Amino acid sequence: MDANEELKQIVKDRYGKVATLEKEHVPNSCCGQSDCCSSDDLSVFSEDYTKLEGYDPNADLGLGCGLPTEYAHIKAGDTVVDLGSGAGNDCFVARSIVGESGKVIGVDMTTEMIAKARKNASKLKLNNVEFRLGEIEDLPIDDAVADIVVSNCVLNLVPDKKKALSETFRILKNGGHFSVSDIVTYDTIPEGLRKEAALYAGCVSGALIKEDYLNLIKEAGFTNIKIQKERKNDLPNEMLEKYMTKEETIVFKNEFAGIASITVYGEKQCCDKTTNCC
């Protein structure tokens, strides 16, 4: 198994276990577990969804790092694709906006998450929300299907981010756009932390430097790229001290520029290189 496949398996295993937990046993805040802010806590960066229309507590596992649907300019009748849809949280919020005339497609590579999302959709009696098993680097979606693509703290888990962005571009209609929340850094993560597979599954060591992340989006062909929201996050000492001594943690805190959750918008222009208008 090559390195990329090994990382994918780690993520599948971790999130597969989370999907099988009952709601009350899913960590929903730092120190939500007995080992307090361990690398198993996947919700350090999560934001509050409870006030958004369409919110379903059964689908909220606290695994995101933003509220991309809030910034995605979704309209009634749109087709929305959610990359890394988990238990369906963002899909159900998007469905409340697109209405009966629209459609929402969630894609996740974890079998357990797909099963949980489908169960949640069935309980909500939603007939225009579907969930497909697949990887973001090879989406099970035809070309030019989506008006809008959203994703919440998932691209940092994808080993081949360039391919994932290329696939995002492919499935968007001409004139479509995306709104993606993700984790980025302001500096290079120390090698010791980057090598930790558990931190990769927890959205930390897979994060890119902010400028590199935005450049990849541009290279994929997107235009009018802008940051819709940016929020700096502090990694809990308890998490860092699992991999560092207390002295190393102090140095890290003093010298590392930081980590942030950002929500980024980008458009797929509806003109090709030979035309000047849509």
Q: Supply the number of helical segments.
A: 10
Proportion of helical residues: 25-40%
Largest sheet geometry: 8 strands, mixed
Identify the overall geometry.
Answer: globular
Radius of gyration: 18 Å
Number of strands: 8
Per CATH, the architecture is 3-Layer(aba) Sandwich
CATH superfamily: Vaccinia Virus protein VP39
Structure class:
alpha/beta
Taken in chain order, the helices and strands follow as HHEHEHEEHEHHEHEHHE
Mean of residue pLDDT values: 83
Describe the structure.
The chain contains ten helices and eight strands. Strand 4 (146-152), helix 5 (161-171) and strand 5 form a beta-alpha-beta unit. Helix 1 (3-19) packs parallel to helix 4. Mean pLDDT is 83; it is low at 25-42. It is α/β, with parallel strands linked by helices. Strands 1, 2, 3, 4, 5, 6, 7 and 8 form an eight-stranded mixed β-sheet that branches. The protein has helices at 3-19, 68-71, 89-98, 111-124, 161-171, 191-194, 197-201, 210-219, 237-240, 246-255, and strands at 79-83, 103-108, 129-133, 146-152, 172-185, 208-209, 223-233, 259-267. It has a single domain (3-267), classed as Rossmann fold (3-Layer(aba) Sandwich). It is globular and about 55 Å long. The longest helix is centred in the N-terminal third of the chain and has 17 residues, at 3-19.
